[in-house]
Amino acid sequence: MKTKFLAAALCAAILAVGCSSGSSSSGTGGSTAGSTASTSGKTFKIVMIAKSTSNPVFPVAEQGAKDAAKEESKRTGDNIVIDWETPADEDAQLQANYINQAVTSGANCILISCSDASKLTSAINHAVDSGVPVMCFDSDDAASKRFAYYGTNDTHQGTQIMDELGKYMKGTGTVAILAGNQNAPNLQARVKAVQAEAAAKFPNIKFVPVAYHVETPDDATKKVIEYMHAYPNITGWAMVGGWPLFAKGLLTTLDPKKVVVVAGDALPAELEYVDKGIAPALVAQPVYDWGYQSVKLIVQSQIEHKQIQAYNEMVNPIVTKGNLHDWAEKLKSWGMTGIDPKFLDPNYGKTK
Amino acid sequence: MTTSGNENKTKPAKQPRKSFLKAKSPKDPKGAPRKPKPAKQGKSIFRVVFGVPEVSLVIIILIMGFILAKFGGTHTDFQTGRSVSNFLNTGSIFNLLENTSYFAIMAVGSCAVIVTAGIDLSVGSIDCLAGVVTAIVLQKMVGAHMTGSAEMVLVALAVCLGVGLLCGVLNGLATVILDVHPFVITLGTLWILRGLAFIVTRAQSIGMPQQVINFTQSSLGLHGGVQPIPVIVMIVISIFGWIYMAKTPAGRRIYAVGGNLEASRYSGIPVSKVLVGVYVLSGLTAGIAAFLSTSVYGAAASSDATGYELYVIAATVVGGTSLLGGRGSAIGAVLGALVIEMIRESISILHLDSNYQQIIVGLAIIVAVVIDRAGANMRQKQMVMEQAKAREGAATPAS
């Protein structure tokens, strides 16, 4: 009996350890204002549900959201807190559970990137019907009752990727599309846009089957290597997300003289690929703004009750060796780490 | 033989008991078994209650519930304006039970498998395949204008159960006929079935018809936006599972096979049939979970239920089922699933950093199993002590 209660106390202690490691913006004691019409000085809790914590773009979005929450708290006088509830791996069912939990625990707003919109529509609508507004970022659920979306126009980004790739491939060759999670509607839209742009502007470019994979750097790297062995005639990669470039595996595997890569995203680890010429262009997503701009929009809409657009498109800059230094500086300003100091050197790119 | 004062001093405790027994039960042969005094009856009720394996889990659940209620904070309900506990409210409790139900239902089937010292790693894939096949069939029905609600619900259930049954038969027969360890067989079917789901869906997410969604999302007249059907199904399955395994001859054979395979074979138990049967049960429960989850969440995709087999097995083991076979219960498996889901939800209710969720869940599962094993060891020791005392009482000669 003593052992049982001792172990139960140990269980409580483990939870207490988790408490002490909790993020500062998670709030204290969970007391929030449950109404969407938050008045000055009250707590406004935004539950942020990204696709997975194993994809490095989402922690950056979390940081952007928290920074915006701090700024807006100072400006409005309200205590705006970000409650980060994201599964370790992509799981739309788990995301739906998080939405339901957010509703029953008094969230004032939910901010979500949908792993599978068709599985989340019901939960999002239930949240909205229960008085909790929902906004989407990165991956939208336009069929739901969400009040706004902030993120990439996926069709536009797919078009940009193919435009850059076709330019560097001089309009000919064999292309593989690296596409991540096959159930993600945003990624599917980018893939279709890549194919459509190629058909319209680069008819001499051929495609091998689309490569889907688990959205981790290791799995993506393995998929690229597997395809390079299976299809040795590949001369170009259209990566609708930057997953394999978050790791260093392809730096020694891909020969820039034989294969051209154009990818989405431009996180610190990817800059080396631009420098080496393996990926001469990256169609960047300012992923920090997923969180930063989304929280700003939520405050405008839900606290200040201003009119905002339902669809808010993010601009995707093209990162090349020419503006690599400027982009590195921007990443640093967002609080990102792991940026090679050579890219932060003001003389980078000017010595040759 | 005359008794000396020393003998009286050495055996003061037993003499009064013997004389008491002889006086109280003159008809008892050789003075055994002993009837306890009223004070001991209270103690044995305590032992009876805590001798039930599932009680340890209930204690854990109650402790966790207390912690969540005490430290989970409150919010203002936007409809009533009253302060409401973040955990102890109808919506939260029902959410918890509903989220538990899918794993719990599969855990009942998994329990039967693990009691035979087997394992089924393919339950997540069976769930996925059953869901996507059902969604495809229902979409065809919509295309053929066969859109009656009852019709669609029955077809959905039948297809889910049918796919689960077929997959279970496949696992069972492969295990028995090929004589390969079920870990290997079900590891293979985990990949095969998931691959089949990917091919039939062509990587698309397939929506479920609204008629079926309305059925499982029905509130049955309850308020607060709750969806009780998955919870009701979980309760029914757990009761049937417990009755089947603990109270029927077919169920008892499962324990016999798990306890000692060779002895069961020599006793005339149809071991092969029992083994195939448990994998069929596992497949059927995965099919039921698929029906509920795809209709509640509204769509099926080839990535559904990825990794769920680990949660299901963890729930079964936390619930007291021994991986070595011969021990376990359906009720325990369901309670184990509830423990794991409470641990997972406590991370958000207590505002813990969700980046630590895997560490916290893993550690807490180990603690929950330790608590349960401690209870099992205590019960084992008590049983041994009582048997020893009973033997002592029988062996002590009458004076």
What does this structure look like?
- The complex is a heterodimer of chains A (352) and B (399).
- Chain A is an alpha/beta fold and 352 residues long.
- Helix content of chain A is 42%, strand content 16%.
- In chain A, helix 2 links the parallel strand 1 and strand 2 (79-84).
- In chain A, helix 3 (92-104) packs parallel to helix 4 (117-129) and helix 5 (154-168) crosses helix 6.
- The longest helix of chain A has 20 residues, at 57-76.
- The relative contact order of chain A is 0.13.
- Mean pLDDT of chain A is 87; it is low at 14-39.
- Chain B has 16 helices and four strands.
- In chain B, helix 5 (90-115) runs antiparallel to helix 13.
- Chain B is globular, with a radius of gyration of 26 Å.
- In chain B, 45% of the residues are buried.
- Chain B has helices at residues 5-10, 14-24, 38-51, 54-71, 90-115, 123-143, 149-177, 182-201, 210-216, 229-247, 249-259, 261-266, 271-297, 308-318, 330-349, 357-395, and strands at residues 74-76, 83-85, 206-207, 299-300.
- In chain B, the strands form two sheets. Chain B has a two-stranded antiparallel sheet.
- Helices cover 71% and strands 3% of the residues of chain B.
- Chain B is an all-alpha fold.
- Classes of the chains: A alpha/beta (352), B mainly alpha (399).
- At the A-B interface, helix 1, helix 3 and helix 4 of A face helix 4, strand 1, helix 5, strand 3 and helix 13 of B.
